[in-house]
Amino acid sequence: MTRHYSVLLQESIDALNCQSDGIYVDGTLGRGGHSLEIARRLQNGHLYAFDLDEQALAESAQRLAEVGDRVTLIRANFAQMREELNARGVMSVDGVVMDLGVSSPQFDDGERGFSYRYDARLDMRMDQSQPRSAWNLVNELDEKELSALLWKYGEESYSRPIARQIVRARALHPIDTTFELVDVIKKALPAKVLNKKGHPAKQTFQALRIAVNGELESLETGLRAAMSLVKPGGRIAVITFHSLEDRIVKETFRQASSVEKTDPRIPLLPSQIRQPDFRLVSRKPILPGEEELAENNRSHSAKLRVLERIGD
């Protein structure tokens, strides 16, 4: 079993303020780091954990064996958490945690095609049963669609030349592997970019992964589902790893914790002044501490935002 380092683990668990009889949701089970810590704090409570990755579910089931029947594993996207929980008779919860992005074992398993560090068939599917993979996007989208995808999901400044080079290369033969795609990307970039720190394919690979798995759309739906489920006093803790995710979480939480200002000249009773249903637990994101940053390089881009329901 590949070791997975759960980023901002203690901070996110503390943020949930777990109650021993509470009902909690881990929207991104992964290898069970957050789920195990939540379940250990439960006595009469229960945890529902979601993941699309069959391998992650199997490995986590072993890791969570120590907490017995306090956890229910659900093979589904967290965007479906409301429907899945309602089907099990759960209409509200005390907290939700979501650790977004790809887990270390998924990156480190070369055969999954997530990483530019290993040569493998282009894949990047979190749900191995879905038909569309990164191979389909790279080899089937037209140049304009590819360029738009790389800009939207990867914020890649050279999206147009990369898309153009991909189309040229695949006209000779399909781009089948991660290393083949990396070579194509390098040919499209100027020397000043290739000489910069960081891998030149990083943003392209990010864009393809997000598009393949519909990550941003699922995030927006999942946040709405979490807010509809959480009880007064309950909290939603979300860990993001790049600006696209963080922007969605930040804006969603901002809107939920604010209301339209009323004209101060209009006389209103206190009971007539609308209050927000949620509050930000901290206005700025919670970041990893120095010790965690030293232990795990992947923690550097992590941000934790926390929202608490205060309305009925």
From TrEMBL:
UniProt keyword list: Cytoplasm, Methyltransferase, rRNA processing, S-adenosyl-L-methionine, Transferase
Name recorded for this polypeptide: Ribosomal RNA small subunit methyltransferase H
Positions bound to S-adenosyl-L-methionine: 32-34, 51, 78, 99, 106
GO cellular component: cytoplasm
GO molecular function, one term: rRNA (cytosine-N4-)-methyltransferase activity
Similarity comment: family membership: Belongs to the methyltransferase superfamily. RsmH family.
EC number of the protein: 2.1.1.199
Subcellular location, record wording: Cytoplasm
Catalytic activity, reaction form: cytidine(1402) in 16S rRNA + S-adenosyl-L-methionine = N(4)-methylcytidine(1402) in 16S rRNA + S-adenosyl-L-homocysteine + H(+)
InterPro entries in alphabetical order: RsmH (IPR002903), SAM-dep_MeTrfase_MraW_recog (IPR023397), SAM-dependent_MTases_sf (IPR029063)
GO biological process: rRNA base methylation
Role, per record: Specifically methylates the N4 position of cytidine in position 1402 (C1402) of 16S rRNA.
Pfam families: Methyltransf_5
